[in-house]
Structures are given as structure tokens and as C-alpha cells.
Write a structure and sequence with these properties.
Blueprint lengths: L8 E5 L3 H7 L4 H22 L3 E8 L7 H17 L1 H6 L2 E6 L7 H13 L6 E9 L1 H14 L7 H6 L11 E4 L18 E4 L9 H12 L10
Parallel strand pairs: 1-2, 1-5, 2-4, 3-4, 5-6
């Protein structure tokens, strides 16, 4: 399946791990383990297509409401994933970045993110962004407050963008959400003003490279006018 009009920046809300496990009579953590395997496959698939930025919603600012044991497991799973996939990132020329209110995460997870970011900083094939303890509203608020602290009296679009978590992250072209939910859940609000949306009922652990390619193919057929007329 060939995609001619490849988006520059794709975001994915990786939803449905818990339901995937519950449908199989398994603990929710087993769904997160299966979801991590899907993440690896989609990162490699995205790199092959020529996508330049892949942003993955791994943990939201609202996810702290989940049971403490599940939150702690998710953090350890992210730690193991990021550390163990360093060879995969390097082999595929993928730069790793993390964004969100990272300073509120456990120190061991902050260290892992920082270490892998540094070791992949030279990679130019694709940038994979993990959004962890991330919220779109929170990112905008943090940006405005930092700009004010630096003495800006008027916050323009150009000024605000400079204070986003990753200022060079381009606007989102395509946002994919799995599991049948039809909302964007506070993800990349500033960057998704004109993003194309693509929803699927497939739960994240069952999301395949083939379905990912179908989303890209559907995107390639759309006409993007950005408020104008063609």
C-alpha cells in the first residue's frame, strides 16, 4: 500500500489497553504490555513511510486519577520500554523526545527520558515524541506563564510557540485515535487547530501496521484548505 501524500506530523491517542485486557479476562497491566508491543511496531512503520514526527499520547495529566498500582506500573513500563528500545531508535535513525510536565514524574523516569534523548539527539530520520504527564491546556498555560515571567507583555502566536514544550514541533497533520472514542482528550490542542482526524474502533493492542497505512491513505485523499478556498 503506497501513500503518496505522507503527513509530516502524525499524533496517536493510544487508547483501549485496559478494555483489551478485560475482554480477555486479564489484568489491565497485561493490556499495557501488549500496547507497548504495538507501539514498537508503529514507530518502525511510521519511520518507513517517511513521516518526520510521530507524537504518542502515553500518559495524560488526568491519568493520575487511575489506581496507584496501575500508574506505578505504567511508569515502570515506560522506563523499561524507553531504555530497552534505544538500539531500535538508533538502528532506525529515530530521535526520541519526551514532553509534558516531566518534572512531576519519578526521578528514575526523568533520567531515562533524558538519557535516551541525549543518545538519540543526532538522529535525523524521524522524531518520536512521548507525551507523558501531558495536557494540551496545561502546555498552553505553562507557555503563557513562562512568557510572562520572561517579561513579555503581549503574547502573540509567535511568542507563545517559542514557549511550548517542544517549540520546533510542527502543527499536527493527522490525529489517530483507537478504541472507538470520538474525542481528542486534551492532546496537542495548540498544534491540532487544523489537524485531520481519523478514528477506529480497534483497540490499541490490536492496531496493526496495515490499519495505520489505511489511516495514512485516507489522509492522503483529503483536501486541506486551512480555512481558505481552492
Amino acid at each position: 500500500m503506497e501513500v503518496k501524500n505522507v503527513p509530516v506530523h502524525v499524533g496517536i491517542i493510544m487508547d483501549g489497553n485496559g478494555r483489551w485486557a478485560q475482554m480477555r479476562g486479564l489484568p489491565r497491566i497485561e493490556g499495557h504490555k501488549a500496547g507497548a508491543q504495538t507501539t514498537e511496531k508503529i514507530v518502525v512503520a511510521a519511520r518507513k513511510t517517511g513521516i518526520k514526527y510521530l507524537s504518542l499520547f502515553a500518559f495524560s495529566t488526568e491519568n493520575w486519577k487511575r489506581p496507584k498500582e496501575e500508574v506505578e506500573f505504567l511508569f515502570h513500563l515506560m522506563y523499561e520500554y524507553v531504555k530497552s528500545k534505544l538500539p531500535l531508535f538508533l538502528e532506525n535513525n529515530v530521535r526520541f523526545r519526551a514532553m509534558g510536565r516531566l518534572w512531576k514524574l519519578p526521578p528514575y523516569l526523568q533520567e531515562a527520558f533524558s538519557s535516551v534523548e541525549e543518545k538519540t539527539s543526532h538522529c535525523t530520520g524521524m522524531t518520536t515524541v512521548f507525551a507523558v504527564n501531558y495536557g494540551g491546556k496545561q502546555e498552553i498555560l505553562d507557555a503563557v506563564n513562562r512568557a510572562i515571567k520572561d517579561g513579555h507583555r503581549e503574547i502573540t502566536e509567535a511568542v507563545l510557540r517559542r514557549y511550548l514544550y517542544i517549540p520546533e514541533l510542527p502543527d499536527l497533520d493527522l490525529l489517530i485515535r483507537t478504541s472507538g472514542e470520538l474525542r481528542i482528550s486534551n492532546f496537542l490542542l495548540w498544534q491540532s487547530a487544523y489537524t485531520e482526524l481519523w478514528f477506529t474502533d480497534t483497540l490499541w493492542p490490536d492496531f496493526t501496521e496495515e490499519e495505520f497505512m489505511r489511516a495514512l491513505l485516507d489522509y492522503s485523499k483529503r483536501e486541506r484548505r486551512f480555512g481558505g478556498v481552492k
